[in-house]
Amino acid sequence: MAPPVRRGATPAPRPSPPGVSARRGPAVPNAGGAGPRVPPRPAPQAQPARQPGALRGAAGPAAAAPAAGSGDTQRLNKRMAELGLCSRREADDWIAQGWVKVNGEVAPMGLQVRPGDRIEVERVAQGFQEQKVTILLHKPMGYVSGQAEDGHTPAVALVNPRTHWREDTSGLRFSPPQLRGLAPCGRLDIDSVGLLVLTQDGRVARQLIGENSEVDKEYLVRVQYGDIATDVQSAFPREQLARLCHGLSLDGQALKPAKVEWQNPEQLRFVLTEGKKRQIRRMCELVGLKVVGLKRIRIGRVVLGNLPVGQWRYLGPHERF
Is the CB of residue 80 less than 8 Å from the CB of residue 119? Predict the structure, then answer.
């Protein structure tokens, strides 16, 4: 995958993630495909002896294998994802290329590891991650978040040079390879608008929609209560508002606590840490409210801001969810 081009001077290389040992390797261009397709590993070259660091889970010696009974085992790709190194899919690609070592030995596919095992990743693998982009799109109504369905256009179709926000300050420029493997992180219904994140980076996807994700999302929701469309706040019972915050269930499961408050007499503000299908609309139905407008304005620490409807920008190098 061709790397995104920055305006101005080429920045200094980013340091390896904390605790990861990384060997220098030749730069390898991306060959395309769905996500980065990893090229054949170059022939090894003689290198001076080194003292690598290591990523460790439980406390244990830096170089020695853990003692028996030091903890339950799990697949290496899952462990790498839990440590924030990459997604499971990326881990499998790296392992297949021989770019991952465990306790100093090249790891085979499907290896089971323990919390104290030392994991090392070649620098060339990290280079592929640095080339990946994350895009913030102001999704209009009428577009679906993921694959095309029922004749509706997927939101990724809006990512092109013409719709790139001219006030984007990231310094990145669009190139077609950035569309390869670009996938939405979570849903935004066809009749909802606002902030939609699309990424090539499995680490970002795991952070936002992984099973243990705690990133919150903020929405502005315009509602009606029966035939009442103005000053809904005065007519809506306070005990029902409390149920929206905590006490509702969907699909037979209790919902996590939410923050729900009136933004103005006709509009509620929701902050959720989960994202069930059409969750806000279904929550409102349970307490007698009808949603007539829904807009997502924030995901974690990243806000929609002044991004125009139908336009997009890159997640900046210093922005974090």
Answer: yes
> By three-state DSSP, how is residue 138 classified?
strand
> Whose CA is closest to 228, among 265, 278, 261?
265
Tokens of 169: 């300050």
Q: Which phi and psi (to 5°) does residue 293 adopt?
A: -170, 135
User: How many C-beta atoms lie closer than 10 Å to residue 102's C-beta?
Assistant: 21
Q: From the candidates 92, 93, 150, 189, give the one annotated as an active-site residue.
A: 189
Q: What is the pLDDT of residues 34-71, one digit of tens each?
A: 444 444 544 444 443 333 334 433 322 333 333 334 45
Q: Quickly count: other Cβ atoms within 10 Å of residue 138's Cβ.
A: 24
DSSP-H helix ranges across 193-265: 202-209, 232-235, 238-245
* Residue 3 pLDDT > 60: no
Is 119 within 8 Å of 113 (Cβ atoms)?
yes
Mean pLDDT in residue range 218-234: 96
Catalytic annotation present for 189: yes
Structure tokens at 144: 């679906």
